[in-house]
Amino acid sequence: xxxxxxxxxxxxxxxxxxxxxxxxxxxxxxxxxxxxxxxxxxxxxxxxxxxxxxxxxxxxxxxx
Amino acid sequence: xxxxxxxxxxxxxxxxxxxxxxxxxxxxxxxxxxxxxxxxxxxxxxxxxxxxxxxxxxxxxxxxxxxxxxxxxxxxxxxxxxxxxxxxxxxxxxxxxxxxxxxxxxxxxxxxxxxxxxxxxxxxxxxxxxxxxxxxxxxxxxxxxxxxxxxxxxxxxxxxxxxxxxxxxxxxxxxxxxxxxxxxxxxxxxxxxxxxxxxxxxxxxxxxxxxxxxxxxxxxxxxxxxxxxxxxxxxxxxxxxxxxxxxxxxxxxxxxxxxxxxxxxxxxxxxxxxxxxxxxxxxxxxxxxxxxxxxxxxxxxxxxxxxxxxxxxxxxxxxxxxxxxxxxxxxxxxxxxxxxxxxxxxxxxxxxxxxxxxxxxxxxxxxxxxxxxxxxxxxxxxxxxxxxxxxxxxxxxxxxxxxxxxxx
Lengths: 64, 408
Fold this sequence. Notes:
The complex is a heterodimer of chains A (64) and B (408).
Chain A (H helix, E strand, L loop, with lengths): L1 E5 L9 H5 L4 E3 L5 E3 L3 E2 L1 H12 L6 E4 L1
Chain B lengths: L2 E5 L3 H12 L5 E6 L14 H5 L11 H7 L2 E4 L3 E5 L4 E4 L4 E3 L2 E4 L3 E3 L10 E2 L4 H8 L7 E5 L3 H12 L3 E6 L6 H4 L1 H14 L2 E4 L3 E7 L2 E6 L4 E4 L1 E4 L3 E3 L15 E3 L11 E3 L4 E5 L4 E3 L4 H16 L12 E6 L2 E7 L6 E6 L4 E7 L5 E7 L2 H13 L3 H12 L9
Parallel strand pairs in B: 1-2, 1-7, 2-3, 7-19, 9-16, 10-11, 10-16, 11-12, 18-20
Antiparallel strand pairs in B: 4-5, 5-6, 8-17, 13-14, 14-15, 20-21, 22-23, 23-26, 24-25, 25-26
Helix pairs in contact in B: 1-8
């Protein structure tokens, strides 16, 4: 199953990932991404990958 | 196997190519770009890139793995010159003819040129070459005049100040970004610029800019004269649609598109990003947005509509744009600027939000500074048309302050 890799140092809290897949991502009070689920079933793959791609600073990757 | 040709390899074009592959498109993808350098991201140019310089990797839109995985052919260094919708070909300035089955127009926009000519010391900021040129002139003690207090002007002001440059900012509006945020909220940003040490001249224009042996002599409409070593002109952008003028496509300050981002009258042509003007069914208005996130979201819609012609979707969005100025991370959501707004938090404490209400009391837009929770809540609330006052109470509680008083 694919997994999400978040670069917490790169994250700037833009929250595009939250808008794209709020069941997988949130932003904490310091403005850093929180991954709500680490594993991505195939059914969600495209949606989560699109959410990751919408990050302005490329802080998220979906890896096989 | 069909061929998708994408004209423009900035964020809109690249993200469309990536989204096509994610949708399972297995045909050929050709990306045409006038710039000969690898695709790079533009928002950092007025921010970190201008501040520190950066190796090009840091602003690259794709890693080498992503470029390899994209399996696209790049045609770089020659701009598209014309489009023939009948023969389905794009002709490049080099004379090369590129045939397509589906065309995506992503040629974006360019900086509006300085009304005072070009040459040493005169700057606009749109490309990495512009940023390099400007950065080479940012040195302690130099004097920079910034014309236009929008996002580009304000970001350059903050960055130049960090280089020890003496900055004067001029804008004909009474407060920065007041057309977008309204004048009262714009004044919060004006105060920040002054607090940081920028000389601001708002509500006046630049009358003349003359060169002499020591730089520029600038006369303002209020009668003041000032000297500058450099001038940055940030007065907006112009869409790159000249190459389409003889194509027969409908151009109205952008490529006119239907709700699914098809160019009007052309099932095999789409537009994304700054260049796309589209009719939103949900909002019953015609929109064009020059925002990074808009380009990315439109790319998804266009890729979907190319791969699934039997399941066309409309493009709908909540506007989102950000700006980094000094120690402020500024984020603007939805439609801002209405006179019915509330201020939460304290701008002097560098954390606040302004919530703008629609006539029915729902949140129509927000500007958020250094407040991540308010950003996430506002983006959700605009999409769901939640009550602005209800959100205000909730956010105030998290701030640990008394409820903010309504501004008007």
